[in-house]
Specification:
Layout: H1 13-20, H2 29-42, E1 45-46, H3 48-51, H4 60-69, H5 76-89, E2 93-101, E3 111-118, E4 121-125, E5 137-138, E6 144-147, E7 150-160, E8 163-172, E9 175-183, H6 189-201, E10 213-217, E11 220-225, E12 228-232, E13 239-241, H7 248-254, H8 261-278
Length: 281
């Protein structure tokens, strides 16, 4: 099999490390955790290009240009493509996997994660979820981690005909809630293209209907969408505030997204329709 199929040499590793503010280090659990946290706190989760119907694709060269040169963010296929390439260039043993968000029998394999084998253990890296892990968690049944006040857990299931599947859960409202389920099937570049195509173009994909932007800060996670601005702080009640069209330019900047004026204006003009579509019947 062509080991260059992921084109990891397209990544300017030095530029990536400068962008996230981390120095190159030999593979270790500590270095992996530091890089994961830096990535998540540097690059926002966002689907601006999907909403504007101008997405450049999820090949590494396109992602590198968007994230590093244009100082943007993206969603799971982009985050994990970039993160996996950086890890491989740094000498880590990397696997790419796809998963399903929510109910297994309903939703397609439209989420991407990275699994790292290190010192005899496997670690789940998930830098591209709206409420992303801050650092890797062992890919082991029952593994739990309190990540700066947010609690996560991994559960294994062998009920799938494809073999083991792994649930990532987040503790919320006094219960464990499912985030996504990842399988062990091999993944090829075309699988990411297909998953991205559904997510960015199919009318059933919510990413095609409403803007979603999220970012991890220090002890604070924020998300804004047509449903409003959500502010989460560990140990405190979740805050929710309405978002008007006039708020959109400032919120984009607050979340680290700088866009040309004409693109910001298009989002502002689209906002009332997205709010109406997000309102329950």
């Amino acid at each position: 099999m062509d080991e260059n199929r992921w084109h990891i040499d397209d990544l300017d590793l030095d530029a990536y490390l400068r962008r996230v503010g981390v120095e190159a280090q030999s593979p270790s659990q500590a270095a992996l955790g530091e890089l994961h946290t830096a990535h998540v706190r540097t690059f926002p989760f966002e689907n601006v290009d999907v909403i504007l119907r101008q997405h450049p694709g999820v090949e590494l060269s396109a992602v590198t240009t968007k994230f590093i040169d244009h100082q943007r963010g993206g969603y799971c296929f982009e985050h994990s493509t970039l993160f996996a390439a950086a890890l491989e260039r740094l000498g880590y043993d990397v696997e790419r996997h796809l998963g399903r968000v929510g109910e297994l029998g309903v939703n397609g394999r439209t989420h991407m994660v990275v699994v790292v084998a290190l010192d005899g253990r496997r670690y789940l890296c998930d830098p591209g979820f709206g409420m992303s892990l801050l650092r890797p968690i062992p890919l082991e049944d029952g593994a739990e981690d309190d990540q700066d006040g947010w609690r996560y857990r991994v559960r294994r299931s062998d009920t799938s005909a494809a073999g083991a599947t792994w649930q990532l859960q987040r503790h919320r409202d006094d219960e464990w809630q499912l985030m996504h389920t990842t399988d062990e099937l091999p993944v090829h570049p075309v699988d990411l293209v297909m998953g991205h195509h559904f997510t960015s173009a199919h009318p059933r994909s919510h990413f095609t209907r409403e803007l979603t932007v999220a970012r991890h800060g220090l002890g604070r996670h924020t998300t804004f969408s047509p449903a409003g601005l959500t502010v989460r702080v560990p140990g405190q009640a979740t805050e929710r505030h309405p978002v008007e069209a006039a708020d959109v330019p400032g919120l984009l900047r607050d979340h680290g997204i700088e866009l040309p004026d004409d693109q910001v204006q298009r989002l502002v003009e689209m906002w009332p329709a997205m709010v109406a579509a997000a309102e329950p019947d």
